[in-house]
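re: the backbone from monday

yeah here it is again, tokenized this time
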């Protein structure tokens, strides 16, 4: 759109191809410059294209020299979006940011008019992510390049209802009030989750208009999203073993109090920028879907070690023999608990994760484990919901709290 307006030459390209380069600055530079040129030639008129080939320069300065040459030759100011900047790591990331900083400081010498770094982190956090000291995020740094850090805000509940109401207007298929309440409860307005949940109901589960979309459909869609762990969700859970993320998330999972120091607030801000925790206090997971995915991911190795047959806990009437389940867990804990908790990266929360992994393995054939956990709670609350058919042939839910 900016290019079409005739004022700028705007290019949005991805740095993802540079991920394999890791610490190899020269390789990372060549990949980034190659992808930038490819996207520019694809999206811009020929008179706005970058130099071909890029000017020769020593490693660690190719981006600076190349962008300066392009800005000199281009008849319009350059606007460049570095998407997936998170893909660059270590010295490669430091080099790219250093060169962008140098171009900024060299103004009014030729260089891009505006640069956008698009990723999951705030710019100030790239210093720590690329090996810098997070306690020294000061001004004398190549990372001090931002004017503003932005993220897409969450929908309010009325906005979410308006969005889903557009589907009703187009198809005549309503969401019941219980379905809307449940969608809000599960997503808390996170834009990707709202759209993914609705898409799962309409396109994948295939509830045909004019049949109404119910709370049960929304719950089914949620479970499918959790199990599928699509790219958006995987990109979040991949952060869980970063030390800064673990430091914030572990007390939430364990229900204990955090141990703040000089860098704790920076870590909380970082995890909040990732979208894993909600705005404001107390510190808590952003929404129930993330809460379930985080717990499932961290307890997945436990689940794989549970060898009991889930069918052995189902009574003749279809209900769950919950007393037997707890007795089996106690036996499992006595035999394996010490080993499993000792090797878990989230050591403080390991007992809770072992219990969740065991329960998830048992009820995975149709039931749900609902989780409530948070910092300073001193406990984790679990609700097991198990479907069965009563003597009248009616579908019912058995609910057991732990």
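seq for it, each position gets an aa:
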């Amino acid at each position: 759109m900016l290019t079409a307006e005739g004022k700028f030459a705007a290019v949005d390209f991805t740095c993802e191809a540079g991920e394999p380069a890791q610490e190899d600055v020269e390789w990372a530079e060549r990949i980034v410059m190659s992808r930038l040129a490819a996207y520019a030639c694809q999206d811009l008129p020929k008179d706005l294209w970058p130099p071909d080939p890029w000017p020769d320069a020593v490693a660690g300065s190719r981006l600076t020299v190349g962008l300066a040459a392009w800005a000199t030759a281009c008849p319009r100011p350059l606007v460049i979006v570095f998407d997936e900047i998170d893909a660059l790591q270590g010295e490669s990331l430091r080099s790219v940011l250093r060169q962008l900083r140098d171009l900024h400081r060299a103004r009014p010498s030729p260089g891009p008019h505006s640069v956008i770094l698009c990723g999951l982190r705030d710019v100030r956090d790239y210093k720590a992510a690329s090996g810098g000291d997070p306690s020294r995020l000061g001004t004398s740094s190549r990372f001090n390049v931002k004017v503003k850090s932005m993220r897409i805000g969450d929908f309010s509940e009325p906005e979410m209802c308006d969005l889903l109401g557009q589907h009703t207007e187009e198809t005549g298929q309503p969401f019941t009030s219980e379905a809307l309440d449940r969608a809000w409860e599960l997503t808390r307005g996170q834009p990707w989750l709202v759209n993914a949940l609705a898409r799962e109901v309409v396109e994948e589960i295939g509830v045909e208009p004019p049949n109404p979309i119910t709370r049960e459909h929304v719950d089914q869609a949620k479970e499918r999203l959790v199990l599928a762990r699509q790219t958006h969700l995987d990109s979040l859970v991949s952060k869980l073993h970063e030390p800064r993320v673990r430091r914030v998330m572990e007390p939430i999972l364990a229900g204990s109090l955090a141990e703040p120091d000089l860098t704790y607030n920076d870590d909380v801000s970082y995890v909040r920028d990732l979208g894993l925790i909600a705005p404001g206090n107390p510190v808590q997971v952003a929404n129930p879907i993330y809460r379930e995915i985080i717990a499932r991911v961290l307890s997945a190795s436990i689940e794989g070690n549970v060898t009991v047959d889930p069918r052995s806990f189902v009574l003749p009437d279809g209900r769950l023999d919950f007393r037997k389940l707890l007795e089996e867990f106690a036996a499992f804990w006595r035999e394996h608990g010490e080993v499993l908790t000792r090797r878990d990266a989230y050591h403080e929360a390991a007992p809770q994760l072992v219990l969740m992994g065991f329960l998830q393995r048992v009820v995975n054939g149709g039931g749900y484990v609902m989780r409530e956990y948070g910092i300073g709670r001193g406990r984790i609350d679990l609700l097991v919901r198990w479907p069965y058919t009563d003597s009248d042939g009616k579908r019912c839910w058995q609910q057991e709290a732990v």
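The longest strand covers residues 381-389. The longest helix spans residues 322-343.
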